[in-house]
Amino acid sequence: MIIHMAQSATEAQHERVLERITGAGFSYEVIHGATGIDVIGVLGDTATAEEGWFEELEGVAKVTRVTKPYKRVSRKTASDQKTVTLGDVVIGGPDVVIMAGPCSVESEAQLMAVAEYVAGAGVKVLRGGAYKPRTSPYSFQGMGLEGLEILARARSRYGLRIITEATGLHRHVRADGSLEDKNVLEQVLEYTDVIQVGARNMKSYGFLQELARLTVKTRTPIVLKRGESSTLKDFLLAAEYIVANGNPNVMLCLRGIRTFEDQEFQRYTPDVGAIAVLKRECNLPVLFDPSHSTGYRESVHAVSLAAVAAGADGLIIETHNDPSNAKCDGEQSVTASQLARIVDDARRVKAALGRS
Ligand code: PEP
Ligand code: MN
Q1: Would you say 102 and 94 are in contact if contact means Cβ atoms under 8 Å apart?
Q2: pLDDT of residue 48
Q3: Which atom of ligand 1 is nearest to the CA of 329?
Q4: Probe target for ligand 1 pocket from 225, 257, 294, 327, with the most ligand atoms within 8 Å of CB
Q5: Nearest CA residue ID for atom 8, ligand 1
Q6: d(Cα 83, Cα 93) in Å, to the nearest integer?
Q7: Ligand 1: which atom is nearest the Cα of residue 201?
Q8: Which of 165, 202, 253 has the most ligand 1 atoms within 8 A of CB, as the residue to mutate?
Q9: Distance separating alpha carbons of residues 250 and 211, to the nearest angstrom
Q10: Which ligand is the nearest neighbour of the Cα of 99?
Q11: According to a count of CB atoms within 10 Å of the terminal CB, is the N or C end of the chain lower?
């Protein structure tokens, strides 16, 4: 952190700034500029320091940060690309990793049908929500624990890994109004290979902390989705929350953002350009969700390829065996043949770029 003193700053004002720096546990270095303006460098782990502590002092013109507040996930601090390993699947390496499945687990028959063609397409990670965060309280809320059990059976039958969302630290309300015994996070942790934190929970900081603390030992991989109205800086700080609390196995997932666009043509605006930003700013694997970001299956193929071309390490794609009767997000779910084509073309794009 650098404190720029005003040209008119007095000796006493200088002294007060230096006292505040040492009082906060930091050391300093003063550079006397040729123009008569002094610059004071604050030395130490300044991630915990607030600019305001110094900005409010008389004689201070400006305070700027040199190090990123998200220092653990920053490429400047740790330049090596991080990878997340799931058995024989490595995310953040040369391969583009595709995760696919329905928005939500609806029944044993539905999930098994999807898992069969997902595995047949060469996809190794099956997605499916058992706990669904829905905008309307009247929409399908997910099968809960039963959904997790179905996912686990699909995993062993088809040799897949599973990713499912933990919606929070509350207990799930079943369709009959009763509560499940365990809270959602603890329940999901018992079953899943990868935990998804959805866009709605990106800023649930207490949840992020507890999630990280509960997975310090297992280091269960976590996919953190970008909040629909969150800045990239907020997104990186949310990832930092998890890493700083003990679980380094975080993957970022872009899933479209809210803009002036209404939902006639696109549900959100696909933030493909943000892939390039995240890849240079941070060391975590970056995934892209072409399903939620576009909202329509007709756009999923094109945006998937754009994301791979832009450097995404993987894609999370919604697919359904009977999209027009899906309980959730049917319009954006691709069919089996569309999925197979995306998987194929995504690999060809990656190979054409010489990265696979
Ligand atoms: C989902 O993956 O089905 C989902 C709810 O995603 P998001 O949190 O990005 O809306
Ligand atoms: Mn969905």
Answers
A1: no
A2: 85
A3: 3
A4: 225
A5: 198
A6: 6
A7: 8
A8: 165
A9: 12
A10: 1
A11: C
Structure tokens at 316: 């999370």
Q: Residue whose CA is closest, atom 5 of ligand 1?
A: 198
Name residue, tokens 């700013």. Answer: 281
Taking alpha carbons only, the member of 297, 296, 279, 299 closest to residue 287 is 279
| pLDDT tens, position by position, 53-102 | 999 999 999 999 988 889 999 999 888 999 999 999 999 999 999 999 99
Note the pLDDT tens digit of each residue in 225-272: 999 999 999 999 999 999 999 999 999 999 999 999 999 999 999 999
Q: Which atom of ligand 1 is the closest one to the Cα of 328?
A: 3
Question: CB-based contacts of 153: which residues, under 8 Å, 6+ apart?
Answer: 108, 112
Dist. CA 17–CA 24, nearest whole Å: 11
292 lines ligand 1 (CB under 6 A): yes
What's the CA gap between 90 and 110, in Å, rounded? 28
Is the C-beta atom of 147 inside 6 A of ligand 1?
Answer: no
Quickly state the pLDDT bin for 320 (edges 50, 70, 90). Answer: very high
Q: Ligand 1 in contact with 267 (CB < 6 A)?
A: no
Instruction: Measure the CA–CA gap between 182 and 184, rounded to whole angstroms.
Output: 6
